[in-house]
Model the fold of this input.
Amino acid sequence: MEVKPRAVVNLIHRKLNQIHAQLIKNPKPHNLNPLLGSLSNSLNPQNAFLFYNQMLHHPTSHNHYTFTHALKACISLPAHQKGLEIHAHVLKCGHYCDIFIQNSLLHFYMVVNDVISACQVFDSISSPDVVSWTSIVSGLSKCGFEQEAIVKFSSMDVEPNSTTLVSVISACSNLGAFKSGKAVHGFSLRKLCSNIILDNAILDFYVKCGSLVTARYIFENMPKRDVVSWTSIVGGYANRGFCEEAVMLFKEMIGRGEAQPNEATLVNVLSACSSIGALSLGEWVHFYMGTRDDLTLGGNVGNALINMYVKCGNVRMAIQVFYTLESKDIFSWSTIISGMAMNGHGMHTLQLFSLMLVHGVLPDNVTFIGLLSACSHAGLVDQGLIFFNAMKNVYRIVPGMQHYACVVDMYGRAGLLEDAEAFIKEMPIEAEGPVWGALLNACKIHGNEKMFERIKHGLLNSTGVGSGTLALLSNAYAGSDRWDDSNKVRDEMRWMGIKKMAGLSWIEADTPSNIR
Done:
């Protein structure tokens, strides 16, 4: 509990004594309500309750505005029980029919996530105004009742304002309700309800629904753009796999100077750099961060930077950034452990895991994927099995398909193909594509053709089988001069509608001089 300095406590007491004197001297609402409002908006809104309670003892000292100020304090804290007490007093003294009090109660209940009481208040309002409708639509959306928010919006009998539209378009974004969102967008165009907050909400809606062409058109034609606009469009392209476009937009953002990237922008562009191996641009982003006094190397940005370096193969810089972080969370540890494993540094991965435990950070399922992968690449089968059993029995983490695939890969790389197959048979869940793919790859490496048929049967009768795994099986048959079997697998791929994606590669050009 934070202890207030004595000077601050004395100042508060003096202020309350002055207010109490004012209450005795001139107990009129028009004099007292502004004082109550200032207390409700202060850094210590609980002090408003002391004054509010004193006002209630004087019948002529309060009116309906008094309750709205007191409810504001309940919202700021929040104070659910006090809000219920105020609601009961409003009903008792006959002020409940006032629209300002009803809207304040509606907003209060939504803030404290009491959706049922909020809906009851809304239904009791005889003629809801735009504030009432906006509160119920916004509250339902923020509390996770997006579909109900859209239904409420569609039944509005007053014209919505831009805040209402932002709330309902956000609900459409979260649900992926493309048709409803387009209708809201159309309404905003017809009514000329445009401001940067609404424009950003509409942009975010099209981005989240995957309609990047429309999103780009809206973005290019926005009368004003801020960092939220740029972050939405950069993140939209990065998250949908159009990483080159995301990087180009980030360069354009820097070049135009319309807005400074924030942490979310940097995380998005670093994610794009990771996906396409754009090390030079990732390094420039790192340099750019160092020129900004308002940006700290930590949290999501620090973790994204580590992820970029390990995926681009610069393990030295990844380690350097990792040790620079003042606060390392589970994501930091899991990222560096998985990254070291990915780059073949098995023993360093195990050392990092030990250091992680020394710092008191408990591993999660991602950490164990990195550990098992490290043991697989380093040929540490016994150590890997110890980790796998510790994950289940010590840390109570239920193994997922990736964990099982790592163990099979670990056995397979060590040439223990029979053990790998036996492990698959003992799995408590049905093996899926990644598991069979790991065994198939091991058989191809060690030239074991005897298992091909059993693997083929497992692959074709399991879920999650990628085109690459089936293509590997076909190529394995072809490598053993079993061309008929190879063609059969290709025919089955065509019959199943599975097509091998063409390989892609990137060549990183020089970083343009305008962003150096």
Summary: Residues 346 and 374 are 4 Å apart (CA to CA).
